[in-house]
DNA sequence: ACAAATATTTAGCTTTGCCTAAAAATAATA
DNA sequence: TATTATTTTTAGGCAAAGCTAAATATTTGT
């Protein structure tokens, strides 16, 4: 697998999680910041390699092999992110770009040993689950903060977006993984909320609330 | 700099250390396991980018910028090798291929932190010096075992070749960095030697002796 | 059901890095 | 010095991965 092929498989894997069924050419193009015509080319090549099944004008769906490779890349990405944060003391908003590069390093043994060195972590610094060596992703029952009702609470277990801007916003608000959040008020019109974090209470927009994963206790 | 460009600069850097003056197209091609015509192409491109000066039919010579980039890649390669051996417990004959990939990861900050994490090592697992962040390589006075006279001794401080085969041979003979070696006999005809390592004494060929660096005490 | 809008694919080009075969320059040798 | 031999460059091509513009399909709205 080339670097480009791995990136396509990874993107399709993520898109399949978001919504079942075939993944459209346009959706792939958007998520990879490339043109639909480029996607068609690559998707045809990956179909020939049996990494996915592709039906003209319908979309792509990963095969077992394709899914395995994608999960392997994601496993590497997330393990490296743990390394960067836990061992090199990077902040969680600084690691994604570097992991985008490290995820393509080819060596089974390296990942086996890295995993061991890190104590076989289950989650990356953004709360995302790390696939096991067979590509199996354990599903956790987490929900978006936006789904929490007034006067209920949850513990932050991850972020949906992990852009530096969003993560820095969370830092400013003292929200990180493990933080307890209570919904004090919820506006039906725009989905905005008043929440309590520690001793502070403040307003957050719907956009924030639907990018934060919590687990109810 | 692309991956290919970095590899060319690195190869030329190493060749310049071996013998001063311009580096020939053929020498580069051989060391990179590619064809001379490909080298001509790349060398012309690197000359346009001011990474080296190139005179047709004469060869290439790195500029200050080129040398700096090459040293940076070598610094990364060697730091990663230290990481693999010291932290992930790889054996010294297993790390080169992986470091060939890791050396191209782009992030100043990553290398700064990795260096710190490793305790700013001066040498890699093969005894090669690690350039500092400005690309400066400190020269150490080491000689080849082949240059040591009968009845003299030295401490192994590095290897010239670092192929897995050679390193495994050294393991078998219990030679590693720090090992004391005494030359008991030397055959002028073929440069072979009888040496003492610990309590064992045995025969080594000239090829072995000229790939092992020692420091005389 | 048909026209308009949208999504997707195809055709044709570009760049990077490599290759082979042929031409040109330099080095070696008789 | 003249002729080989070797080294290096040039010319012409190829595969990967991208792009734009044009052609087709599909979907949507009336
Ligand atoms: Mn990431
Ligand atoms: Mn992550
Ligand atoms: Mn190495
Ligand atoms: Mn080394």
From TrEMBL, chains A, B:
> Per UniProt, which keywords does this protein have?
Activator, Cytoplasm, DNA-binding, Manganese, Repressor, Transcription, Transcription regulation
Q: Is Transcription there in the keyword field? A: yes
Q: Which Pfam families match?
A: Fe_dep_repr_C, Fe_dep_repress, FeoA
Q: Where in the cell is it found?
A: Cytoplasm
What InterPro entries does the record tag this protein with?
A: DtxR_MntR_Metal-Reg, Fe-transptr_FeoA-like, Fe_dep_repressor, Fe_dep_repressor_sf, FeoA_core_dom, HTH_DTXR, Iron_dep_repressor, WH-like_DNA-bd_sf
User: Which Gene3D superfamilies would you find in this protein's record?
Assistant: 2.30.30.90, Iron dependent repressor, metal binding and dimerisation domain, Winged helix-like DNA-binding domain superfamily/Winged helix DNA-binding domain
List residues of the HTH dtxR-type domain: 1-63
Principal localization reads: cytoplasm
Checking SMART domains in the record gives: FeoA, HTH_DTXR
- Is Transcription one of the keywords UniProt gives this record? yes
Assembly: Homodimer.
The family assignment reads: Belongs to the DtxR/MntR family.
Q: What does this protein do?
A: In the presence of manganese, represses expression of mntH and mntS. Up-regulates expression of mntP.
Put simply, this protein is called Transcriptional regulator MntR
């Amino acid at each position: 697998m080339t670097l480009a092929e791995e990136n396509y498989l990874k993107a399709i894997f993520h898109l399949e999680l978001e919504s079942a069924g075939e993944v459209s050419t346009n959706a792939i193009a958007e998520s990879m910041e490339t043109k639909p015509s480029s996607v068609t080319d690559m998707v045809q090549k990956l179909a020939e390699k049996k990494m996915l099944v592709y039906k003209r004008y319908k979309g792509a769906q990963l095969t077992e092999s394709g899914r395995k490779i994608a999960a392997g890349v994601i496993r590497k990405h997330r393990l490296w992110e743990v390394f960067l944060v836990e061992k090199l003391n990077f902040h969680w908003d600084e690691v994604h770009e570097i992991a985008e590069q490290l995820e393509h390093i080819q060596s089974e043994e390296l990942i086996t040993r890295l995993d061991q060195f890190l104590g076989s972590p289950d989650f990356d610094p953004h709360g995302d689950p790390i696939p096991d060596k067979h590509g199996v992703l354990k599903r956790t029952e987490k929900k978006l903060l936006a789904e929490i009702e007034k006067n209920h609470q949850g513990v932050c277990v991850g972020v949906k977006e992990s852009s530096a801007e969003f993560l820095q916003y969370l830092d400013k608000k003292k929200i990180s993984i493990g933080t307890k959040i209570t919904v004090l008020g919820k506006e039906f019109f725009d989905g905005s909320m008043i929440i309590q974090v520690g001793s502070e209470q403040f307003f957050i927009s719907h956009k924030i609330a639907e990018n934060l994963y919590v687990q109810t206790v």
